[in-house]
Write a structure and sequence with these properties.
Blueprint lengths: L16 H10 L5 E6 L4 H12 L3 E7 L1 H10 L8 E4 L3 H13 L5 E4 L4 H8 L13 E7 L7 E4 L9 H17 L6 E5 L10 H14 L7 E6 L1 H5 L1 H6 L12 E3 L3 H14 L3 E7 L5 E2 L7 H17 L9
Parallel strand pairs: 1-2, 1-4, 2-3, 4-11, 6-9, 7-8, 7-9
Antiparallel strand pairs: 5-6, 5-10
Length: about 325
C-alpha cells in the first residue's frame, strides 16, 4: 500500500526553536558514547553519523558488519575511524548493546533499523537487561508553535495500559526529564476526558490518587493536578470557564495520558495538524534509550540525542546542569 508523503502544517518551518536550543545546550557537554543498534540502512546510519557530527554522540555501531558497511557505501560515509561491534543479526545486536550498557562501555542506546519491540525485549530482560527499580517509560518532548513552552507527553510508546503504580513511575520519569531540561518545578497535568473525579472513568480515579501520592511525597519535584481535560490543561480561559483553581491548569508542562493509545494519538495530532516537532527518549533504564523512527526528520533525531545527553549528564555527581 502506498502512503501519502509526510506533511506538516505551514507553521512547522517556523517552529522547533526550543528543540534547537536543546541541541545547542547539549553540545556544551561531552558526547555520549552510544551503542547504535543494527544501523544497516542509510537512514539509521546517517542519523547516527549526523548526531556525531553535531557533537552529541560517539557512535559504536552494533550489528552485521557487512550490512553496516554496505549502508555506509550507499550513503557515501567513511567508517574507517568508527568502532563496529559485529553481530550476526538484529536480535544479537540488541542483546550486545544492552550488554555493553550493563558493563559501562556505553552511556546510551540508539535504535537503528529494527523494531522497537526487539530493542526493548533485550532492555527489559529480567536477568541481563537494564531494568532499575523504576518502571521504564517513554517521554515525548514537543515543540508546538502555538504553545508558549516545551511540552512533554507520557507515555505514548512503551506502556500500553499502565497501572496506577506504573503511572507513579511514568510521572516521576517525566518530572526528572523536565528538570534535566531546565524546568525547575514541572507542572504536571493528569489527563482524562473530564475534570471531575468519577468512578465511571478509571483515569479520573488514577489522577486523584496520583495527586495524593504527590502530597505524601511518593512523587517529588513537580506540581500535580488532575483529572484535567486537555483544554483545561493548556488554556487558562477554558479552566476559568470551568471555575478550576489550579497552579497547573492552563499552563501545564507535562501531560500524563491515560494509556498509550491516547498518548500516541495526541502526539501525532500535534505533529501533523498543529505543526509541532517531536523528540523523545525512554527513561527508567540504566541508560537513556533513543527510539528514533525512520519517519523522523534530522531535527527530531538530533533533538532526541540532545535530550539523552542533557539527561545523562545531569546525573553525573557534582554536575550542576541547567537547573
Amino acid at each position: 500500500m502506498n502512503h501519502p508523503p509526510r506533511t506538516r502544517s505551514h507553521s512547522a518551518a517556523g517552529t522547533a526553536r526550543r528543540l534547537d536550543e536543546l541541541v545547542a545546550a547539549a553540545r556544551r557537554h561531552a558526547p555520549l558514547r552510544t551503542a547504535v543498534v543494527h544501523p544497516v540502512d542509510t537512514v539509521s546510519l546517517l542519523g547516527a553519523i549526523e548526531a556525531e557530527r553535531a557533537g552529541l554522540i560517539t557512535p559504536v555501531l552494533v550489528g552485521p558488519a557487512n550490512r553496516i558497511r554496505a549502508a555506509a557505501r550507499a550513503a557515501h560515509i567513511e567508517l574507517a575511524d568508527h568502532t563496529i561491534e559485529a553481530t550476526e543479526h538484529s536480535h544479537a545486536a540488541a542483546a550486545r548493546a544492552v550488554q555493553m550498557a550493563r558493563r559501562g562501555e556505553v552511556d546510551a542506546i540508539m535504535k537503528g533499523a529494527l523494531h522497537t519491540d526487539e530493542v526493548m525485549h533485550s532492555v527489559v530482560d529480567p536477568d541481563n537487561g537494564l531494568r532499575t527499580e523504576r518502571r521504564i517509560s517513554h517521554v515525548f518532548a514537543i515543540d508546538a508553535p502555538h504553545y508558549p513552552r516545551l511540552l512533554f507527553i507520557t507515555d505514548a510508546a512503551v506502556n500500553i495500559y499502565p497501572s496506577l503504580e506504573d503511572k507513579r513511575d511514568i510521572v516521576q520519569n517525566a518530572i526528572d526529564l523536565a528538570q534535566a531540561l531546565g524546568v525547575r518545578t514541572p507542572r504536571v497535568a493528569i489527563l482524562s476526558a473530564v475534570e471531575l473525579v468519577t468512578p465511571k472513568i478509571k483515569s479520573t480515579l488514577d489522577a486523584a490518587a496520583l495527586c495524593k501520592m504527590a502530597d505524601r511525597g511518593q512523587i517529588t519535584g513537580g506540581l500535580l493536578d488532575g483529572p484535567l481535560a486537555f483544554d483545561n490543561a493548556v488554556s487558562r480561559a477554558a479552566a476559568a470557564t470551568k471555575a478550576i483553581t489550579s497552579g497547573v491548569a492552563g499552563r501545564a508542562d507535562v501531560f500524563v495520558v491515560p494509556d498509550l493509545e491516547a498518548g500516541n494519538m495526541l502526539a501525532k495530532q500535534l505533529e501533523y495538524l498543529a505543526g509541532a516537532q517531536l523528540a523523545g527518549i525512554v527513561l527508567g533504564a540504566r541508560v537513556p534509550i533513543m527510539l528514533t523512527s525512520r519517519a523522523d526528520d534530522a531535527r527530531s533525531r538530533l533533538a532526541s540525542c540532545a535530550i539523552a545527553v542533557l539527561f545523562a549528564r545531569r546525573r553525573v555527581p557534582g554536575h550542576r546542569g541547567r537547573r
